[in-house]
Amino acid sequence: MIFEDYLAQFSPAVQALAIQARKLILETVPGVLELVDPSSGIVAYGFSSRYADLFCSIAPYKNFINLIFGKGSLLPDPHRYLVGTGKYARHVRINKSEDLLRPGVRALLIAVAYLARRLPPTLTLQLAEKVAMEFVLIPPGEFVMGSEEDAPAHRVEITEAYYLGKYAVTQAQWLAVMGSNPAHFKQDNQLPVETVTWSDCVHFCQQLSGLTGRQARLPGESEWEYACRAGSHSAYYFGKSTEQLDAYAWYRGNANGVSHRVGLKIPNAWGLYDMHGGIDEYCLDSWHPTYAGAPEDGRAWIEQGDENLRVLRGGSWYDLAEHCRAPHRNYYNAADPSEDHGLRVLVTTLPLSHPSEDQ
Questions:
Q1: In the Cβ-directed half-sphere of 201, how many Cα atoms lie within 13 Å?
Q2: Regarding the domain with residue range 122-350, which homologous superfamily does it belong to in the CATH classification?
């Protein structure tokens, strides 16, 4: 049995994660040895213990690393692991590498090793002298996306942790990365950058990746809403009443027709500011009028949509209160700038590459 045949028993989301992790490991870990059991299709990896802190190792074999479906965590018993997520979670005892081939273990072991790492709750990327970008760790989980008013509500599983910008990208940050400031409202460099196109935002993320060595991109629409809700289920992350909105958002009711500095309103439970109002934030997704056929694994939905139109989320200083709700969806031509459109950056949990091993 080959690895791809083994993966066929799992959902498409799990298969995609496994393939992505396998590629990541082979490309980024120096001297990695891939071990494939021909009868089961299980893949394991052996490499220097120098990299063991990046993966969940099988104690006491420091150089033998197993790849665990979901988030693996070492329990007090040094040979006992919690593997899997949700209803698939199991406690598994592993004494030696041969135990990987036991049927009960085989059903749970596939390659998503980086989810087992202990990730810091925040991330700061230095862009220039006195200019940095702060990020907050967003954990994996499930949520109900949408509402009765905003396309069919449906359950989505976010399978990977990621870092999301604590604030919308500011003019100071854009200038540090791109060398220019396209904004209409220029009186304060801590105002969110605007008057940018979706294509400009994608280019900014590419430049940011090159500058910092981290994988930066726009969030997918489901990643954005999941982070905005931060475990809440109401129209806004603080509740359903618009009477409280002034404390949490800049919108048409209090912005006086202009943009405002980031971070002045109350953040959500995960420490993200201005997810309601402030500036409309571009997502990766192309526009689909409804969620019919949308991915349920957190991926951006590009296929079968209008790629000339891109999704915007959050509402802005220009918008009515109802347009700042967590599930509200909007779109705009990808090639046209607007003075109330900007971005918030997502950074993945791994750098573009790992440093090579000392000789």
A1: 34
A2: paralog of FGE (formylglycine-generating enzyme) (3.90.1580.10)
